[in-house]
Structure formats: C-alpha cells, structure tokens
Amino acid sequence: MMDENIKKHKEVKLMNDSDFWTLVSLINGTKQIKEGIQLLITELAKLKVKEIKLFEETLSFKLYLLDTKDHACYFGDHSFREEKPNTFSVDLFLYARCAAVSRGEKIYNEILDNPKLMPKNEFLEELLDVTSAAYEEKKGKEFIINATYDYETFSNKNGWS
C-alpha cells in the first residue's frame, strides 16, 4: 500500500532534482563541512524566496523517505534495536539522515535502496538550518515554512509499520 503522504508528492512542488543535488554538492565540495554548509547557505540566499522554499520542501521529502525502521537499524551506535529500544536516538537518526543526503544523489539513492549503507555514526544536524539561515540572510527576518513532509523520526508511518 502506498503511503498517503507519498501520494501527496504528486501535488507538492519540489525543486528540480538536478538543481537540488547541485546545491547539496556544495557541502562536500570543501574539506570542512562548516565551510560547505556556509557555501550552501550563501548560494541559497542568492535564489528567489520561492526557490529557497522549494529547496526546503525537497530536503524534507528526501529526509522523510529515509525515515524507516530499516534505515534506523543501520546508522551506528544509537541504531534502533527491538531488544534495546532505550538506546535508539530519534535525534541522531534524523542527523544521520541529513548526513546521508549530504553525500549526494548517487549515494543517497543507494542508501534509499539499501538501508545497510546508512552512514555510521556520522551526523549533520546543520543541514536542517540552511534554508532558515539563507532566508534570514536574504530577507533579514525569520523563515517560517510548514513543509509538506515531516522529517522528524517516526513521521513516515509506512516506513515504521
């Protein structure tokens, strides 16, 4: 059965995949992740507000797709384990999904298809703030968007059933 939220995808406007992944590639185009994140923020701030919002929608969707029990079992020390549910970190799983997205389109798609390829003990929480920072840089005020896809852990109901 197809997830109802995935059905909505056809109705939701996302950034062109090529444009999205070109922007994401800026993160890994530098030796220092912080420099890459700042470069991404700078480039996003050059875009129209509509495009910044499309980037956020697309990022949310990519993170949502990785929000599955299978992926949660393979991200490192705090992975989901039925026998030890208290060791699972919902926050670190989200940040690990951010790290997966930051690796680029090819690796992201491989991870999406094979959860065992999830980055191990790698986290990139900063990716969650790039659109807000870019919008604030561009407009000088707080960025508020309610993305269609909730990327918080356990939001992808079919991914956890």
Would you kindly provide a written description of the structure presented here, covering whatever features stand out?
- With 161 residues, the chain is mainly alpha-helical.
- It has one domain (16-148).
- It has helices at residues 4-9, 17-28, 33-45, 49-66, 69-72, 90-102, 105-113, 130-139.
- α4 (49-66) packs antiparallel against α8 (130-139).
- The longest helix is centred in the middle third of the chain and has 18 residues, at 49-66.
- The model has no long low-confidence stretch (mean pLDDT 92).
Number of helices: 8
Helix proportion range: 40-55%
Largest sheet report: none
End-to-end separation in angstroms reads 11 Å
InterPro entries: DUF4240 (IPR025334)
Protein name: DUF4240 domain-containing protein
Organism: Niallia circulans (Bacillus circulans)
Can you give keywords for this protein?
161 residues, mainly alpha, 8 helices, 0% strand, DUF4240 domain-containing protein, DUF4240
Q: How would you summarize the topology of this molecule?
A:
Blueprint: H1 4-9, H2 17-28, H3 33-45, H4 49-66, H5 69-72, H6 90-102, H7 105-113, H8 130-139
Domain DUF4240: 15-136
Protein name: DUF4240 domain-containing protein
Pfam families: DUF4240
Can I get a quick summary?
The protein is built from eight helices and no strands. The protein is mainly α and 161 residues long.
